[in-house]
Structure formats: structure tokens, C-alpha cells
Task: inverse folding
């Protein structure tokens, strides 16, 4: 497995404690998850029906403000795994630094996959990949800039895994354009990553291809039930987006007290430049707070947002020492 956040087992091996003792801020997953409520036994016992899968698609279209074809998958990662099979191998260019699965998956499938640093450097690629807002630095682009790139590439994949709180950045309403494919994660914003639910939105041919490769039951009955409920809960979504904005500012204030410089971030995480990220990570880990450091940049430290007030208090106490 490539390096990712959420590797709490490594933190436990090095610093002890049970999983329940830790505050895992190494991911961009909402620590105040959607309240799932009761899930009927039917959703655990029976295979999902076509009508249930269609209800989930309609809920996703509603949440993402799109009428384009859509397929539910086992997280955005499931779509990434299938990307290389949508077209013959060619030149893939990925706007970086970003989520490291894209380069790895495409290279392993035989694509000429290279990471580039500027938007214009994607031009001419058979497959161009942009994460918007980006992980880990939060860089983002307005939809018009990405649409301007569309005629210059064979296929444009826009990963909007962190776009729930900033719908004005989303290209989902334009997703039926030829050559455009949008990926959405459910688990991050709704704090239910273990559910393994995500969506691909695009033109009919691409979505049909992904659906065929995914098989007849790509997501569980429980994921369908919870997804339908959460995606239509606009009040929860709006309140959560507002809270995350406040919490991001709160975390930035704590970081300033450590003289960490804000590099960027999205609604669910912040990236800071520190004198020594590994030392900062170890300081937090000794009190069982896990963060994300980066091998390629020894000054970068990424923190997700604490959830409960008790987690905020604990983080403040550790940083104050």
C-alpha cells in the first residue's frame, strides 16, 4: 500500500495505546459523522434491488446538482482503480503534488503517467487528472478554468472528493460533456469512510463502461440506505459546511501559536509548514494524536479537524506544552 493517512496501526506500534485512545487527524475525514440512525434488516440481508440503486443515483444527482449519468461505486478509490481501463494506454498527466494513487495506478496499468506542476502542462495528455480542491495543499481552480482545458486533453478527470462544502467549485452540473469525468467521495464529508461509497459522474459512454466493470452490486444495501438519507439531508449538509469553516479558522489560530505557516487546505484538513514535521508529528503522537507527515517534504504537516470539544481541548493542551 502506498503512503496514506489513516495508518493508525503504525502509530500504535510506535507510540502505544488502543485505537480508541487516539484522535486520528491524519485523514481528511469528518470526525463528527452523519447520524446514521436505524437501518432496516432488509438492507443487510438482501441484495440491493435496481430500484434501490436508482434511488441512490437520484439522491446523488440531487446533492451534486447534476442531471448527468452517474454510477455508485465502492468509494472514489474504486473509480480510480478502473480509470486505466476506460481507454487504451497513452499519456497521463496528473497535477501534483496530489493524492498518490493516480500516478501509481496508471503507471502499473502501462500508462505513461507523469506528475506536472501547472495547469497548462496538462494540455496534450490523453488523460489529465486534477483534484479540486487539491489534497494536500488545498489548491483549487474555478470551473471555467477547467472547462477551458477540456478541448486540450483526451479525457479530463476531476476528483472532487473535498468539494462538498464548496459546491461552487464543482463541475458536476457540466459532467455530461464529452471527455469530462467527475469523481465524488461520500465518506469524507459525511464522516463515514468505512461505508465505502463514492460516485463517478460523466457522459453516458464513460459511466456505462465503469458500471459494466463494477458489476451488478457495486455498493452494499446499507451504503444505499445511508447514502439516500444523507445526500438528501440539506440541513445537515449546510450546518456541517458552516461548522467546518469555523473549525478550519480555529485550527489555523492554534497553528499560528506554534509559528506554523499555513500552506493551504480544504474544508476537512489544513496543511502547515513547520520547522520539522516529523518532530511535530512525534510531539502530538506521544499524546495519541496522529497527524500526517510527508516523505517528499519534511516540513509539511497535515491535520484534519478535531470533532468534539473534548478533542479540541486535548489538542490545545498538547500544543501548549
Result:
Amino acid at each position: 500500500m502506498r503512503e496514506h493517512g489513516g495508518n493508525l496501526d503504525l502509530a500504535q506500534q510506535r507510540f502505544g495505546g488502543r485505537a480508541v485512545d487516539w484522535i486520528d487527524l491524519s485523514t481528511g475525514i469528518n470526525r463528527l459523522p452523519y447520524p446514521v440512525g436505524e437501518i432496516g434488516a432488509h438492507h443487510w440481508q438482501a441484495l440491493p434491488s435496481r430500484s434501490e440503486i436508482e434511488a441512490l443515483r437520484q439522491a446523488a444527482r440531487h446533492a451534486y446538482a447534476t442531471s448527468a449519468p452517474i454510477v455508485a461505486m465502492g468509494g472514489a478509490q474504486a473509480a480510480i482503480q478502473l480509470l486505466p481501463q476506460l481507454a487504451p494506454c497513452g499519456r497521463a498527466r496528473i497535477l501534483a503534488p496530489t493524492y498518490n494513487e493516480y500516478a501509481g495506478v496508471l503507471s502499473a496499468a502501462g500508462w505513461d503517467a507523469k506528475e506536472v506542476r501547472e495547469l497548462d502542462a496538462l494540455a496534450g495528455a490523453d488523460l489529465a487528472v486534477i483534484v479540486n480542491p487539491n489534497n494536500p495543499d488545498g489548491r483549487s481552480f474555478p470551473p471555467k478554468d477547467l472547462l477551458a482545458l477540456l478541448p486540450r486533453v483526451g479525457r479530463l478527470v476531476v476528483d472532487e472528493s473535498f468539494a462538498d462544502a464548496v459546491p461552487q467549485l464543482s463541475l458536476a452540473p457540466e459532467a455530461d460533456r464529452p471527455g469530462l469525468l467527475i469523481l465524488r467521495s461520500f465518506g469524507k464529508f459525511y464522516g463515514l469512510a468505512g461505508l465505502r461509497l463514492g460516485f463517478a459522474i460523466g457522459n453516458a459512454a464513460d459511466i456505462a463502461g465503469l458500471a459494466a466493470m463494477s458489476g451488478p452490486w457495486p455498493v452494499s444495501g446499507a451504503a444505499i440506505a445511508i447514502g439516500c438519507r444523507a445526500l438528501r439531508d440539506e440541513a445537515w449538509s449546510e450546518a456541517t459546511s458552516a461548522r467546518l469553516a469555523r473549525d478550519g479558522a480555529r485550527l489555523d489560530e492554534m497553528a499560528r501559536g506554534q509559528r506554523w505557516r499555513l500552506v493551504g487546505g480544504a474544508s476537512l484538513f489544513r496543511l502547515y509548514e513547520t520547522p520539522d514535521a516529523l518532530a511535530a508529528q512525534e510531539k502530538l503522537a506521544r499524546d495519541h494524536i496522529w497527524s500526517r507527515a510527508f516523505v517528499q517534504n519534511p516540513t509539511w504537516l497535515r491535520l484534519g479537524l478535531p470533532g468534539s470539544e473534548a478533542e479540541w481541548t486535548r489538542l490545545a493542551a498538547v500544543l501548549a506544552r
Q: What stands out?
A: The two ends are 35 Å apart (CA to CA).
